[in-house]
Write a structure and sequence with these properties.
about 85% helix, globular, 17 helices, Growth Hormone, Chain: A, mainly alpha
């Protein structure tokens, strides 16, 4: 742990990403209850949440090209400023009672596009701040910061939303992005060499995308895991982001839902601590198989939606998610050429998130038609089946940690 923290670029990266996540942990909670206060409709909530996801997926490949062509620190400063402005606009509309579903959808689209530029840049920036020998502890420390910030943000957000309303929660998110922009601006990294091209100039965007696709598609273990998460994320996010707040609003309350989300984040933090101490040779295979435990939160919401059971289920799911995430980041960062890393991350994110809008849009209307518990149990079953399919691949188990 001391190794990465002795390097100033990594410290600024850790501070910036942790600050942003404190505010970002508040945003889904605040936005969900803002929409429910506005219309009370699960279908409307699905539409608002899905609009951001659709824009995010649509722009991710372009974001990967931008992050591989431009200095990644500068990309993160610009995207943080843009995120602060969009979230600030949503907060102002909610606070002044002038928000409507169409304008929330429009601002969600803009915010999703901004995130599409920042996500590949942030993921690929880690190897620029630490040497290869420190990648695992650096990723674990980043995840600890993100998880700790999420715990603080989710807990504080639940209190803020319950006490003074969701508009102030969205304002906190905007302020956090503004501070993160300042912190990202303190990064001092080597100047990146421009992307080489055929004689006479830079590669075109399409050439960049084709090169990134070759790096992505040539590795069987990469696209198998991405296919797993295309299915798994649609089920998990649809269950937790759309149906979870609905179950909370109809049962144990908004404040307790914040506690449940904080328990998941505590599980993520515990998973990062475990990853710092436990270095299995086949970390990726273990992480992929552990994702079967991510079915527990959806199953608990469907069968026994009481706070103690949900806290335990979401915490266990969080541990599993984190063990996978750290193994996945280290595997990509050590097996993918650095010049193409942002683009490979963007293909990973597109594949992993492409079905999320479908899950978010579908679960609300289906739940209104057949009931919430059957949909939640169906989501849990989908998570287990997708994980079993990926775990059967030899290529996933062939990747060994250094």
């Amino acid at each position: 742990m001391r190794g990465p923290l002795s390097l100033a670029p990594f410290r600024w990266l850790l501070a910036a990403r942790t600050t942003a996540i404190v505010g970002n942990a508040v945003a889904p909670l605040a936005l969900a209850f803002a929409v429910l206060d506005l219309t009370g409709s699960a279908a409307d909530l699905s539409l608002v949440v899905a609009a951001r996801s659709i824009a995010n997926v649509a722009m991710l490949l372009f974001g990967g090209v931008v992050a591989d062509r431009l200095p990644r620190g500068a990309v993160l400063v610009g995207s943080s400023v843009a995120a602060a402005l969009t979230q600030g606009a949503i907060a102002a509309l909610v606070l002044t009672s002038t928000a409507g579903i169409p304008i929330l959808v429009l601002l969600g689209v803009v915010n999703g596009a901004v995130a599409a530029v920042s996500l590949p840049a942030a993921a690929a920036l880690v190897p620029e701040t630490v040497p290869a020998s420190l990648l695992r502890p650096a990723n674990a420390l980043l995840r600890l910061g993100l998880n700790g910030g999420s715990i603080v943000g989710a807990s504080a957000g639940a209190v803020v939303v319950a006490a003074v309303g969701p508009g102030w929660g969205l304002a906190i998110d905007a302020a956090a992005f503004a501070v993160a922009a300042v912190l990202f601006s303190r990064l001092r990294l080597p100047v990146k060499a421009p992307t080489d091209a055929a004689p006479g100039g830079h590669l075109s965007v399409w050439d960049d995308l084709r090169e990134g696709w070759r790096e992505f598609a040539s590795r069987r273990w990469v696209w198998i895991v991405v296919l797993q998460f295309a299915v798994l994320n649609a089920a998990f996010i649809g269950a937790s982001t759309v149906l979870g707040p609905l179950v909370a609003d109809e049962g144990f309350g908004r404040g307790a839902w914040g506690l449940v989300i904080a328990a998941q984040t505590a599980g993520l933090a515990l998973g990062a601590v475990i990853a710092l101490r436990w270095h299995p040779r086949r970390a990726l295979g273990i992480g992929v198989a552990a994702m079967a435990l991510a079915a527990l939160p959806a199953a608990a919401l469907g069968l026994t939606p009481v706070v103690p059971v949900l806290v335990v289920a979401f915490a266990i799911g969080g541990v599993a998610i984190e063990l996978f995430a750290i193994a996945w980041d280290q595997s990509l960062q050590t097996h993918i050429p650095r010049a193409a890393l942002s683009r490979v991350y963007s293909y990973d994110m597109v594949g992993s998130f492409i079905a999320v809008p479908l899950g978010e849009v579908a679960v609300g209307p289906i739940a209104e038609s057949v009931g919430v518990p059957p949909v939640l149990l169906g989501c849990a079953a989908v998570i287990v089946v997708a994980t079993l399919a990926a775990s059967c691949s030899r290529s996933v188990w062939s990747i060994r940690a250094a």
